[in-house]
Specification:
alpha+beta, five-stranded antiparallel sheet
Length: 562
């Protein structure tokens, strides 16, 4: 969490450490608040004493992550990733996925709300005269979140008791943090930069964004021109890969779920140690046994720096050619864990695919013909996410991407001050920017929205009408009065909704075929009423609005006053 007072003439952003349970009997403010929830065992409840009442059934933060690693059936993590999981009912009580029988289940929306409730309580305890619900709150979301995930986030924020809020994309927040730190010299720093690639690799997801920079007499003008698809791929996948290597060294010993979680946690520590500065040659991992003979059943295995480099650098950040595309099929064995992890671990391949998909917009930003050969080369890269706390990983990614243009020097890296806190600080600064206290990144919605229609019953392919074009600004409304449709009323109807992040440019009102790259959203199903008793079809036109918080509202407006 971070905050910025609106009073005063200068922009000042401060961190807010979140008070939380760290260990049994130890409560303290911490700079990071892990998005983890733990349901305590009945015998633990009287001894833990979490700081806020909301911890009666679920404890949030550092203790939850630490204790949940030992009792994994009572732990919820990655609530944000669950919010964008299209194959489950995200409002149903499904978490913890595969949890213990005595653990109460909650929905991904409720899990997100509980985390926000804790943060609200921590703020209100420290600022009782200025409660969080009375402030202008900025909540960050992945740029790749679709309309459903954004709407569910809005529901979670409101469940947490907050009403005065807006959403900002996390890669944009990272760029806002860079702008905040360089308020005085931003023009000079971006003088020769026209296209910035933002690569955000966190614990569970990878988020890709392109920002165009243009010069003006008043300073640089910034516009977000493209975002990538949602990729459930990040530091957790790297830790799991290292844990598998440790398991292989145990000579066929079968690990229990609790032991596996121990190995994953230890693998994370090994990764950070062996890829960090002054790294040791190897890292020993000890796994506690189970049952009555704990000491005798304890086993150990080691990871060397060479193994970690091979698995993480070469597995997730390999040197690839610019025309190598990522695999798209999912691996069923990984899906058993619940979340739809991508099957292609090579982040560099996803980057190449992202640049190819958005080449037209990128070449235009660079002032080049949109049919230029090869991939568009960004002028600078901004890295974000805790994964890049490792200098080795950060250097490898920039090196791998730069190698796609061997005749050019390495791509310039825009340096961050703190990769763990940049998004929170940038979000607070964005709040000031909304009040005219800084330079705003324009770009509107990252997705185009289409409504499925029956254009011709003889056509076998699905058709859709372009409703909200990519780049439409928040608060804008579109009315398609020139296109009148027949709407069924008095009986159940379904409205298919599609989104696209591609460079395809369709004007509002255009009827298009639905290509495979369009992403279907859960359809709207309802029964519409009219003043007449019998079912009928009435003429309507479509009206769409992109709200201030980035969600879409849709109306069917009757043309005959019904």
């Amino acid at each position: 969490m971070a905050f910025a007072p609106l009073q005063g003439s200068t922009a000042n952003v401060s961190d807010f450490p979140v008070r939380q349970l760290v260990r049994e009997g130890q409560i303290a403010p911490q700079p990071l608040f892990p998005s983890a929830l733990y349901s305590p065992i009945e015998s633990e409840r009287s001894t833990l004493n979490p700081p806020f009442a909301s911890g009666a059934d679920w404890i949030a933060g550092q203790f939850a992550r630490w204790r949940g690693a030992k009792v994994p059936g009572r732990l919820i993590t990655s609530a944000k990733s669950w919010l964008c999981h299209p194959a489950v009912d995200r409002t149903a009580d499904i978490l913890p996925w595969g949890g213990a029988p005595d653990v109460p289940k909650i929905s991904p929306v409720r899990a997100s709300a509980l985390l926000l409730e804790h943060m609200r309580a921590a703020w209100n305890e420290a600022h009782s005269a200025d409660p969080l619900e009375a402030q202008e709150v900025v909540v960050t979301v992945p740029a790749s979140f679709d309309e459903v995930a954004r709407s569910l986030t809005v529901n979670a924020v409101r469940q947490a008791g907050l009403e005065h809020f807006t959403l900002v994309e996390e890669p944009q927040a990272a760029f806002y943090h860079f702008s905040y730190r360089h308020q005085r010299d931003l023009t000079a720093l971006l003088q020769d930069i026209r296209l910035v690639l933002i690569v955000d690799v966190g614990g569970g997801t990878t988020d890709l964004t392109l920002v165009q920079v243009a010069a003006s007499p008043d300073g640089p003008m910034m516009k977000r021109i493209a975002v990538g698809d949602h990729l459930i791929l990040g530091g957790d996948n790297m830790d799991n890969a290292l844990a598998r290597r440790v398991e292989e060294k145990l000579q066929g010993r079968k690990l229990s779920t609790a032991q596996w979680i121990q190995v994953v946690q230890a693998a994370r520590e090994a990764k950070e140690a062996l890829l960090g500065p002054d790294a040791p040659h190897d890292f020993k991992i000890t796994i506690a046994g189970e049952g009555s003979k704990l000491l005798g059943s304890t086993v150990s295995a080691g990871l060397s720096r060479e193994e970690v480099v091979a698995l993480v650098l070469d597995g997730f950040f390999p040197q690839t050619s610019p025309d190598e595309s990522p695999r798209t099929a999912r691996v069923s064995g990984i899906q058993e864990m619940g979340l739809p992890y991508v099957s292609e671990p090579a982040i560099t391949k996803h980057l190449a695919g992202f640049l190819a998909k958005h080449s037209r917009s990128a070449f235009e930003a660079l002032g080049l013909p949109d049919d230029s050969p090869g991939l568009p080369r960004p002028d600078a890269i901004l890295l974000n996410g805790g994964v890049f706390n490792s200098t080795a990983l950060a250097d490898r990614l920039v090196e791998a991407v730069s190698s796609w243009w061997p005749e050019r020097a390495a791509i310039r890296r825009l340096e961050h001050e703190n990769l763990d806190l940049a998004v929170a600080r940038g979000a607070a600064y964005y709040g000031l920017v909304r009040h005219g206290r800084g330079r705003r990144i324009s770009g509107g919605t990252a997705h185009s929205f289409y409504l499925g229609v029956v254009a011709d019953k003889r056509e076998e392919e699905a058709s859709a009408i372009s409703l909200i074009p990519r780049g439409m600004e928040e608060g804008d409304t579109i009315e398609l009065k020139d296109r009148v449709f027949k709407l069924h009323v008095g009986r159940p109807v379904q409205f298919p909704i599609y989104t696209s992040t591609g460079d395809q440019v369709d004007r509002p009102g255009d009827i298009v075929r639905v290509p495979p790259e369009f992403s279907p959203l859960p359809p709207i199903q309802t029964v519409l009423k009219s003043s007449r008793e019998r079912a009928e079809r009435i003429p309507v036109y479509l009206k769409g609005k992109l709200t201030e918080i980035g969600t879409v509202e849709l109306w069917c407006v009757a043309t005959e006053g019904k």
